[in-house]
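Sequence, please.
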């Protein structure tokens, strides 16, 4: 594993399993010590940080350090297995739906009581632990409170506040640092080879979310859609604009979601048919249809999650837009996220009061919460944009 994302000089070998963790030296030190020193170890951890900060990457690196025995000659191979997600002592829940189901939580709890089969520990990694509703969280409580001696839970979430107090009281929390825009830009330029100006703009627009910055930097169409959406919202004046722009946002998010999931869906379908011996283009036997229907149902749930995530990214961009307006209203031009729109933002800052801008920011935050509760995206966006338009002059 090459150390392209760490402070290790290029061309040198990064230390396993931490080589893919970028910009989180303090957190790595804590987890490395815990993995090597039983007195520093605890049975349940919560890794928090904003989207794109590397929560999951760090969780799997920690799992690899826990499961592999450093005294074993095969330690490096074991670590690579864990990082690839194929080691039998690693159980990971990657959320494909809008929420984590009780069924999935119960399966995790059952798995947590198995003794390690090959490694030093059994590790349960829960990505997006904030997507558990209260009754699902309650399923985990006893397992977190009294786990077997050699089982370790690693939960990932944006913040401690995203989990119930009963969960937070049973874990050791580790907060990740937020990287600077310049640091993310340098990383993206190094990873992708794009021009530094594009990397800087992408890092700024992504608000330091590494994965999103990389996508913006390498996808001109994604950059165009973002710019078009923000300009459309700035141009909203009345109900007609509200309905049109809300529809455009949902349509763009739908197309984006399809682009992200279509290739994977097709590959999964082909793999399933190949596994059960159905030739490409052949009719699907009745005995296989149930399996195919189950796969398609799972893919539909994933598509719903992808669509809502896409709309949430748009709302995050809109929050950055009106945050910039607040800065300008208070005489601050440094630190603008959307510098390319500064003339429009200055005009809006002059036309609105700071209280008006803050009310719009509150409405966007409320819309994000409503979408988490499965409110129809188009209706939620229309309601939000009415708030935006009511502060504009025709």
């Amino acid at each position: 594993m090459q150390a392209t994302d760490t402070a290790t000089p290029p061309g040198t070998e990064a230390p396993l399993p931490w080589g893919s963790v970028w910009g989180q030296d303090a957190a790595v030190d804590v987890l490395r010590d815990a993995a090597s020193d039983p007195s520093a170890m605890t049975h349940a951890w919560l890794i928090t940080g904003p989207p794109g900060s590397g929560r999951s990457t760090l969780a799997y690196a920690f799992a690899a350090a826990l499961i592999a025995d450093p005294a074993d000659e095969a330690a490096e191979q074991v670590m690579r297995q864990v990082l690839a997600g194929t080691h039998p002592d690693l159980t990971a829940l990657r959320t494909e739906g809008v929420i984590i189901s009780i069924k999935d939580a119960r399966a995790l709890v059952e798995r947590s009581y198995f003794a390690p089969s090959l490694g030093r520990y059994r590790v349960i990694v829960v990505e997006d632990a904030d997507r558990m509703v209260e009754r699902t969280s309650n399923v985990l409580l006893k397992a977190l409170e009294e786990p077997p001696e050699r089982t370790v839970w690693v939960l990932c979430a944006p913040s401690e506040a995203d989990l119930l107090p009963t969960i937070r009281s049973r874990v050791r929390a580790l907060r990740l640092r937020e990287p600077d825009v310049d640091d993310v830009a340098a990383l993206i330029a190094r990873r992708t080879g794009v021009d530094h100006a594009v990397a800087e703009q992408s890092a700024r627009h992504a608000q330091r979310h590494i994965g999103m910055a990389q996508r913006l930097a390498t996808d001109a169409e994604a950059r165009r859609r973002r710019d078009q959406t923000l300009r459309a919202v700035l141009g909203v004046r009345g109900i007609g604009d509200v309905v049109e722009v809300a529809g455009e946002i949902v349509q763009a998010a739908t197309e984006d979601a399809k682009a992200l999931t279509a290739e994977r869906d097709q590959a999964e379908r082909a793999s399933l048919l190949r596994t059960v011996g159905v030739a490409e283009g052949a009719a699907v036997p009745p005995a296989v249809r149930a399996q195919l229907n189950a796969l398609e149902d799972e893919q539909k749930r994933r598509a719903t999650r992808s669509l809502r995530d896409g709309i949430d990214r748009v709302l995050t961009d809109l929050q950055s837009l009106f945050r910039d307006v607040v800065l300008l209203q208070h005489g601050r031009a440094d630190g603008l996220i959307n510098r390319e729109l500064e003339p429009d933002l200055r005009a809006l800052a002059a036309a609105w009061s700071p209280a008006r801008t803050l009310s719009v920011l509150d409405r966007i935050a409320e819309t994000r919460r409503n979408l988490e509760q499965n409110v129809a995206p188009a209706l939620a966006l229309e309601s939000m944009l009415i708030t935006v338009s009511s502060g504009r002059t025709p």
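Residues 181-234 form one domain.
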